[in-house]
């Protein structure tokens, strides 16, 4: 496998550049959509056009839910709130302040800015290091409830429960409104399409797949989510503004929790994480509801409810994937050609030696309730050192590793990286100090390709574009070597979940090395690997310490492996360091033998 | 029940986590009243073998037969109800439950709780006085004794015990060895002990096997000459 | 002042009774049952049916519980069981179930508001002011629910198994506990508690197909703030329910309706595991 990969010479692009985006297909799609929109009002009856306008605007709102939930994994119940903010901004200003082009623009701007501010506030509240995904849902659930009550409390100013209506607006023909709403949806969909297919879009999926891994790749997940929430709020607000300006009516239901959950239903049925699915879902269901609300209102809603539950239980990806699969099967030839990613080397920018010691650990403690997992841990790590942490199960090895890469983990003591005290820094800031952590179980982004996983790992050093894809993957020498030697280079466009266990481990190691770290924390990198794979990882690790002068901290069960590659060994037992010395010292230590083989070693013959 | 049919028969078992294969084609059997020790360093697949036997992990290949019945693949609670008690290595105790509740959980229906508690009180007298204490407040050694006591509550035919001696003082290890040996004398229970403590393992078990990288590397009887040194060789750093 | 105090205590009692079903399901199954509101509604309609059939209004309460229990078993088997590994999807699926239940009720009983016969009418004089007897009776009734639930969890084998499953499911399974069965029964129990609570509150409010909805979010917040424990839920109901009564009385009833949600959102930001959670 390895020879094969080495043999197939991987092209290393010397030239920079090579960005690609879907701008052409988006323009083509948008063009088609515009043609359909242009013709539609002349083909359809007025009633249909009328309700389609509402459906188009709600579809744009559903699209923001898809970005947040389908792509990024934030289950939001509150997207309706932003729609409501935009709608009420329009209604309130037209009713109380004035009407005209200037007022309209002002209302739109106020709506968008307030919605973005509220979105940022919600994001600030909901997204912080260590927040549970459930808490975000709780906050987004509270938001529309609060807003609805605020509208109720507004008395005659907001129209309370009956809302506002009859305020002046533009009485344009229905076709114009239809084209505005349709144009807006096409624009939003096109931009969203470019965004989710860009390198930044991959980062969103990476956050959904494994937020912890993202944080340990130095990606500021909370900030990204807050920005996303604000942007989604702004777009939702524009849709709401359009709705109010067109219908001339606003009511508290527009900001409500029920509309928020309906959006989720549309997105789930259409297919989360597909953009087109939610648009079709929103329009289809809203349109049908309007038609059937007269004849079979309850039965229709019942049917939607049943379909929703069935889809969540049995088809979590919604209906869109079924359509696309069918499309692919029928028109297999029309599938897009695979884009070839070229690998390129990049010289590590942090390679210079620094004055301070890479890692100083002083008095580190960790308690879980009354349980002391670590007590008084003191040690230092030097450049070019491969330091192994060994000890029986439950000795506190993994806990110690955690304390080195996340300032929130320690109960006491201090960790200093190149002279900088860690304090209470979250993992993404620790990464910036030069720490790279590989987890025990292979932690990769299952639905991203190998190249995308590595690209996401480069986030901190090469900010991904929000609308295009980079065709050249620049990696530092060490990461490149792993990619080439373990057969990953030949599998750049394979989704990570299809890799073998050994390749997943190698990919995660390559992702960590792509961060250009100075200190690498490895938690059992060889668990479950074959002998050959172990040896290869071992030789890569030794060359990293010798050639690039990295400090590597290795937690390992396999003592043979430790013996072969370590330059120093620390033995942990019951949360304390019992020995810190050379490999030889550890092998010859009676204490270590006792810890490993049980207290009473037979005296008849010493081990070889 | 019947004659010499093994209580536990593991046939060509292969298993692991996700794509990582940790146990490779292991075969092993435990006869009625027999105690077998499974030795090996950390990460060699010992615990995985027990977890697969109990149905917590699916078997990729091979079978687990308990008293003639194929139980491969679980579910764990059904396997446990064949009078099998399983004592995992980590998080084996309900820290926030009392000693009494932990003991009661030893058997799915706590039918013979009072009777068994009486008897277990003779093996580990301290437990009788401290039934109302929260299990998490017991010392490490006391918790391990509680684990064995809970396993005995099931009136098991087979005990699967994962590294009961880890981190214990020699005196407590001796008490555990005595308790396990005594229980076998009294009830004829079979045991499969996963161990790293060679001395303890050889003092309790009739047979032993060493697991290395998921395969049985060496095996034999406990009373063979120089056996301790032979095993220590396998376990040394 | 006296009335305010009674309002606080009775409100807390009602909130506690309404939230227990949600809590037991979250505690044992780690599952947020967004059909809880719909289960409350079913309880209300069960009471409506019972009294419409001419039964003693007190009988409506156990009847509602029975309906809820059976329904809970069916729902667990059909919808909840496949979703244990997808907790956020379970929220959505149970929400969808709530829609289905709401529509079925609308189809069966119509959209209009119905009134249920009250088991007790009249008022009692308290410090010179009269106070609804039924509201007062809800205090001991909620206490009974709390005590019964505590006894079930702490003095029965089912409770021991359930707590074992909460603390360490794999260990419990290894000891022969059928955690699947524990979950099934727990969901049935949680649904029964919800429908019973629905029947309990209907004499105070009218019955309509969306009866449960406003209670769902408040219950959810209270359960999270409680740290998922029975005494914690009592305290959370008293504190947040009390705040709600005070805000409604002295500031505005509309803001009062927000008190629990807003306070809970901030409390959970500071203490993610709730006020009384570990």
Textual characterization of the structure:
The complex is a heterotrimer of chains A (608), B (237) and C (278). By secondary structure, chain A is α/β, with parallel strands linked by helices. Helices cover 55% and strands 13% of the residues of chain A. Chain A has a six-stranded mixed sheet, with helices on both faces. In chain A, strand 5 (359-368) and strand 6 (371-381) form a beta hairpin. In chain A, helix 12 (257-270) crosses helix 13 and helix 12 packs across helix 14 (297-314). Chain A is elongated, with a radius of gyration of 29 Å. In chain A, 51% of the residues are buried. The model of chain A is unreliable at 1-16 and 599-608 (pLDDT under 50). Chain B has 237 residues and is of the alpha/beta class. In chain B, 35% of the residues lie in helices and 26% in strands. Chain B has a six-stranded mixed sheet, with helices on both faces. The termini of chain B are far apart. The relative contact order of chain B is 0.18. The model of chain B has no long low-confidence stretch (mean pLDDT 88). Chain C contains eleven helices and two strands; from the N terminus they run H-H-H-H-E-E-H-H-H-H-H-H-H. Chain C has helices at residues 2-29, 36-52, 60-80, 87-109, 133-155, 157-167, 169-174, 179-201, 213-226, 230-250, 253-270; strands at 123-126, 129-132. In chain C, strands 1-2 form a two-stranded antiparallel ribbon. In chain C, helix 2 packs antiparallel against helix 3. The radius of gyration of chain C is 18 Å and the shape is globular. Chain C starts with a helix and ends in an 8-residue tail after the last helix. The A-C interface holds A 75, 125, 130-135, 137-139, 141-142, 145-146, 149, 152-153, 257, 261, 264-265, 268, 298-299, 301-302, 304-306, 308-309, 312-314, 316, 369 and C 32, 79, 82-83, 86-89, 91-93, 95-97, 99-100, 102-104, 106-107, 217, 220-221, 224, 252, 254-255, 257-258, 261-262, 264-265, 268-269, 272, 278.
